[in-house]
Amino acid sequence: MDESRHVVTSSRGGPSNPMRVGFGGALAAICEAARMAIVAAKISNDAVVSLCAGLAGTAYPESGRKMRMLLEEEFPGKLVRVCTDMDLTLEAIGDGAAIVLIAGTGSAAVGRNARGRMGRVGGHGYLLGDEGSAYHVGQRAVLEALRYFERTGGDTAMGRKILSDIGAATWADLQSRVYAAPDEVFPRLFPMVLQAAEAGNEMAQTLLDDCAAALADLVGDLAERLQLQSQNFLLAKTGGMLARSAWFDERLDHYLRKAAPLGQFSALQLSPAEAAAHLALQLLPPA
After folding, report:
1. Range of the domain at 258
2. Which of 57, 67, 96, 236 has an alpha carbon within 20 to 30 A of 90's alpha carbon?
3. Tell me: the pLDDT tens digits for 95-111?
4. Is 54 helix (H, G, I), strand (E, B) or coil?
């Protein structure tokens, strides 16, 4: 993005949450995305003046400081800002009172009231919550299927599909994979649960209904914290769990209307990448 806020080019990178892929992995993903963007824009490295990295996992001060230090070493002489992916969503929705629900591998809600006070609920990672997230749905699906197997010695239709999708021959094999790399197991099962729910599987529908209620609770809790229960505010949703199943989207909207009756559904005005570029421009001194 240039100083007139015109998007010059864009690129994509790999996972960049330092708490999940490590600081080295996150740095490599950011640098590769930046390199591809610079090449596509046909500019030199010297033409880059500032950059903003909006990364999950950097809400913890030490994590954010370390990531910024690494980026400053990688991009010497550039103005660097590190914020969370949740900060990007607030920049992307525009001004005024708003709450953004983030529903993906993890789950969180971030918001701002009319006085500019900001807050968040959730986003603590799978060890401390992430209720309603794709990770949580996949985890619950495995637990339900595994418990059925332990009770009966047989598998439900969902249990058979879980083993097939993960490529595990037995539940013992799947357990080994879970303990080795849970991020490579649980979130991958979310699309399968969606398909099962669409086909009328009651277990899948129950899991997703509980998931939608948990996500809406994040919004309700944040609306209460920011004292938004008695005023209109923008309510946006973003994340990889959305717009994949009409059945699930309807259940989520149902619970959101109950949790935040004055929330006015709105789309984000910017993509997360554009929001990051806006924040990077804010680092520049006034013209």
Report:
1. 95-268
2. 67
3. 899 999 999 988 999 99
4. strand
